[in-house]
Amino acid sequence: MKIGNLEIEVPIIQGGMAIRVSMSRLAGAVAREGGIGLIAGSAIGIDELKMEIKKAKEYLGEKAGVIGVNLMVAVSNFEEAVNASIDAGADLIVCGAGFSKGVFKIGKERNVPIFPIVSSVKAAKLSQRLGAAAIVVEGGNAGGHLGTDLDSWDIVKEIVEAVDIPVFGAGGVMEPADAKRMMDLGVAGVQMGTRFVATTECDVDEKFKEMYVNAKKGDVVQIQSCVGLPANAIISPFVERLHAGTQERPTTCNNCLKKCDHSFCVSKKLIEGHDGNYENGIYFAGKDVWKIKDIISVKEVFERFRPVFEGR
Questions:
Q1: Which of 108, 120, 93 is nearest to 39 (CA)?
Q2: Same domain for 222 and 190?
Q3: Antiparallel, parallel or unpaired: β 167-170 and 135-138
Q4: Is residue 286 domain-shared with residue 147, that is, in the same domain?
Q5: Distances (CA, A) of 209 to 10, 36, 95, 158, 278
Q6: Phi and psi at residue 178, in whole multiples of 5°?
């Protein structure tokens, strides 16, 4: 598959998951298998972001592969991070948690494809007009911050029929059967985040991965993030305190977001989740995480999913 100046062997985007969930090791492994590996660039320093892009490229060695960066529009240094990512050699930019018109201008000027994450026909059509190379359509069954309550299955087909650029379906793809169901809706490929957390190359604490493989149906609930968007997370002590209204508000702020209601610090809670702090961390996950029952290598993920895309 060719999109803009990108050659994509297997139409799988590994979702960009912050903070420090999808970094160079995971993104590089996905790119080596022919997919699009994404480094989550939100809420990490610019120097660290550049270093992670460099490390992912080095991980590829002489093998061709696509390394991109996922950035939240909601972060205060969004455009700086976009330009820094391109400076460091990112092959594309995926952006969500808000909508930016300015990023398309940067992409055009610097000849780097922009893949916005959208959840409505209106946003999809606007993205196409502004010059998106492709779009990721994400439903309310995805992990992390959400743009809609509708499941991907309810919105993907409608958006596929509304635009003339490649569409990647996201939210709910845990097993090859889910990928086939998504492809049957007419998408060019899929984006998977949750499935890639439960891999040996993902750098989160083993407690994080164990929560995924031990999750039962119904263990993912919606919370209201300080970003101003709903989000899907596995039930945990922090989530229970948040729902009960007993979670203490932060006393300091580093202004990492353009807008924040200061109900809690999502950056801090994501880091604590990454580090396996069960009592205080957030564990974002797709609603269907309960389908994941093993921790495998990225190579094994591709071995399972690759047949879905063959001959299409």
A1: 93
A2: no
A3: parallel
A4: no
A5: 25, 22, 25, 34, 12
A6: -70, -40
Residues contacting residue 181 through CB under 8 Å, at least 6 positions apart: 153
> How far is the C-alpha of 223 from the C-alpha of 63, rounded, in Å?
41
For 13, 38, 117, 234, 236, the CA distances from 94, given in Å and listed in that order, are 10, 8, 7, 24, 29
By residue range, what is the domain housing residue 95?
Answer: 2-203+294-309
pLDDT in tens, 201-222: 999 999 999 999 999 999 999 9
Tell me how far apart the alpha carbons of residues 178 and 274 are, in angstroms, rounded to a whole number: 26
What's the first-to-final CA gap in the chain, in angstroms? 10
Phi and psi of 54, rounded to 5°?
-60, -45
Give the C-alpha separation, 290 to 213, whole Å: 7
pLDDT at 130: 98
Characterize the bridge pairing of strands 230-234 and 220-224: antiparallel
Cβ contact 302:34 at 8 Å: yes
Look at residues 99, 48, 91 and name the one whose alpha carbon lies nearest to residue 69.
91
Residue 166 and residue 212 share a domain: no
Decide if pLDDT at 251 tops 90: no
Ramachandran quadrant class, 34 (left: phi over 0; alpha: psi -120 to 50; beta: rest): left
* Global model pTM greater than 0.85: yes
Total of domains in the chain: 2
* pLDDT range class, residue 21, cuts 50, 70, 90: very high
Classified as helix, coil or strand, 24 is helix
Rounded Cα distance, 104 and 107, in Å: 5
Token pair 């594309």 is found at: 92
**Cα distance between residue 303 and residue 312, in whole Å:** 17
